[in-house]
Specification:
Length: 89
């Protein structure tokens, strides 16, 4: 299985800081983060997010991915503009 995208691991304390979460808050897994081309976190999902329920997980993640990919495009290239949502929790 050849992974063709970056995958990372770090200690919980560092990950919580990166995600903008208090170190004392439980870090539920998985943590799925969509980062735009400029390195800005656009959407974030914790393991307890209702959008990750099996029945709607694909739809939720596809919408977040599409929204993130639109970041950085010219307005003419965007089909629709949705409000910026840093965290989808």
């Amino acid at each position: 299985m050849g992974v063709t995208f970056p995958v990372g691991y770090n200690e919980q304390k560092y990950a919580a800081k990166f995600l903008g979460l208090p170190e004392t808050e439980p870090l539920l897994m998985p943590q799925i983060v969509f980062i735009d081309r400029k390195g800005v976190i656009r959407r974030q999902f914790a393991g307890d997010n209702p959008g990750l329920a099996n029945a709607i997980q694909d739809t939720t993640l596809r919408a977040a991915l599409d929204e993130t990919l639109k970041q950085g495009q010219t307005p003419a290239a965007q089909h629709s503009v949705s409000p910026q949502n840093k965290k989808g929790r």
